[in-house]
Design a protein that fits this description.
Blueprint lengths: L6 E7 L4 E6 L5 E6 L4 E7 L5 E8 L7 E4 L5 E5 L4 E6 L9 E6 L3 E5 L4 E14 L5 E16 L5 E8 L2 E12 L2 E13 L3 E6 L5 E6 L3 E8 L4 E10 L11 E3 L5 E5 L4 E6 L5 E6 L5 E7 L4 E6 L3 E6 L17 H8 L12 E4 L4
Parallel strand pairs: 15-27
Antiparallel strand pairs: 1-26, 2-3, 3-4, 4-5, 6-7, 7-8, 8-9, 10-11, 11-12, 12-13, 13-14, 14-15, 16-17, 17-18, 18-19, 20-21, 21-22, 22-23, 24-25, 25-26
Length: about 350
């Protein structure tokens, strides 16, 4: 059952529809991008959750498809169709990136392993890069264009969702260390989803993978992890025909029994993991919620909307009996090989297909 509802603590107009909003992992900064514009907005908030505009970086070229901030360095990485992948200094924002990576047309990215590794999603592949010089560690084999990257709570495991005919595929990878070097291995399972994926995320205990997407409403699927057994799939929220799907992130509530998503009706909706039903809704934006990010250490959610606002929300406290610790997900690593003994399999053609694209 849901806890107390979210509470709004701050709102800031940016003057144009927000495409993406992300928390800086270590500072009281939000970074936002605007729809259809190659522009970065830096938003500051203080201990009293007062929010104000910071630096603004106007660029040329195509808009950004995705951004990610490193928890290991003061670094922002951006990518998009028709753009090179670029790294920016979040401490001293300027029109000139700190470095340009060799790869263009990336559509999704995310940091894993506490920021030591950047996963860059391209067409038919995802690159696994170390975070200092962005040297390529490995290439992950996928199908279709990447649409989302999500990290497991164990910090070394991640997923990449890609768009394919009839829905999406979700691929699993892991980055560990051997002889002090980062090593990558790819899961032997390709999990098929019956709709286009906009966002994915793991519960605090690491035992549930939630996937959201679709158009003209919101479709959700929850998956038991690591056996990768579907728990529920349903169309959770109806929208107008042709309306956008959900926001580009999800946030589990402190109990892990439900998660928040942003929907095209302008609400933040709390979805029960077991049933897939919407159990609570909060009016959030005047128009679709386009982006959502969470910072669990501060119990905060940030949202961006088509109405041009960035908003901060406070998550309720977890009951003491349901509090989360990072250690809770570590035993799951040992379960991978029990469920999927071909974790280090080499051949894409040999990957076992799980899930289904049936509605």
């Amino acid at each position: 059952m849901p806890l107390e509802p979210l509470s709004l603590v701050a709102a800031l107009p940016l003057g144009a529809a927000v495409a993406t909003v992300r928390f800086h992992p270590n500072r009281r900064i939000l970074v936002a991008t605007l729809a259809g514009k190659p522009e970065l907005r830096f938003v500051r908030y203080d201990k009293q959750d007062h929010i104000e505009s910071g630096a603004r970086v106007d660029l040329s070229g195509a808009p950004f498809d995705a951004i990610a901030l490193s928890p290991a360095r003061d670094l922002l990485v951006t990518c998009g169709r028709g753009r090179r992948t670029e790294a920016w200094d979040t401490d001293l924002p300027s029109r000139k990136p700190k470095s340009e990576l060799s790869w263009a047309d990336a559509t999704a990215l995310g940091f894993v392993r506490r920021g030591e590794v950047l996963v860059l999603g391209l067409d038919e592949r995802a690159l696994v890069l170390e975070h200092v010089e962005f040297r390529r560690i490995a290439e992950m084999r996928t199908k279709g264009a990447a649409s989302a990257v999500a990290q497991h709570g164990e910090k070394r495991v991640f997923v990449v969702a890609t768009a394919v005919d009839g829905g999406a595929d979700v691929f699993f990878g892991r980055v560990g260390t051997k002889e002090r070097s980062l090593r990558f291995s790819q899961h032997d399972v390709r999990y098929a989803v019956g709709f286009s994926v906009r966002a994915a995320g793991f519960s605090h205990d690491g035992r549930t993978l939630a996937i959201v997407g679709g158009t003209g409403g919101v479709q959700i699927e929850t998956v038991a992890f690591p056996p990768l057994r579907r728990r529920v799939r349903r169309r959770a929220i109806e929208g107008a025909p042709g309306s956008p799907g959900p926001a580009d992130g999800i946030a589990f509530d402190p109990t892990g029994s439900a998660f928040w998503l942003g929907d095209p009706t302008g609400h933040l909706s709390l979805v029960d993991v077991g049933s897939g039903e919407v159990v609570s809704r909060v009016a959030a934006h005047d128009g679709p919620v386009t982006s959502l990010d969470v910072r669990y250490t501060r119990r905060m959610i940030a949202t961006g909307g088509a109405d041009g606002f960035v908003k901060l929300w406070e998550l309720p406290d977890a009951p003491p009996s349901r509090s989360y610790t990072e250690d809770a997900s570590r035993p799951i690593t040992e379960e991978f090989k029990a469920w999927h003994p071909l974790w280090d399999g080499d051949d894409v053609a040999s990957m076992r297909a799980l899930g289904s694209r049936d509605p």
